[in-house]
Amino acid sequence: QVQLVESGGGLVQPGGSLRLSCAASGFIISIYTMGWYRQAPGKQRELVARITRPGTTNYADSVKDRFTISRDNAKNTLYLQMNSLKPEDTAVYYCSGVNYWGQGTQVTVSS
Fold this sequence. Notes:
- The chain is mainly β.
- The protein is built from no helices and 11 strands.
- The protein has strands at 3-7, 10-12, 18-25, 34-39, 46-51, 57-59, 67-72, 77-82, 91-97, 100-101, 105-109.
- The strands form 2 sheets. Strands 2, 4, 5, 6, 9, 10 and 11 form a 7-stranded mixed sheet that branches. It has a 4-stranded antiparallel sheet with strand order 1-3-8-7, with no helix packed on it.
- Strand 5 and strand 6 (57-59) form a beta hairpin.
- The model has no long low-confidence stretch (mean pLDDT 97).
């Protein structure tokens, strides 16, 4: 059974950091392109970052140089390190791969 479980969201002040995790089961994330997406209230879901099988990474312009996507193959877990967070980063963050989605984790950036 395929499952993606996100964790690590929360409330953080502007300028702060969070690390999101996405634990996968039922498939091996390292052989697929995996991505982090987010959806803010009233907005469409958007791609934040993705990592391909060979490890190539791509980022949305809005998060470039602040966010880093990575994976731990031994733990079959995807990560998103988020630094210098801004209020506009507030959203529900989802991980996805092979057309599967996690349940999402809320990130709120506010003072």
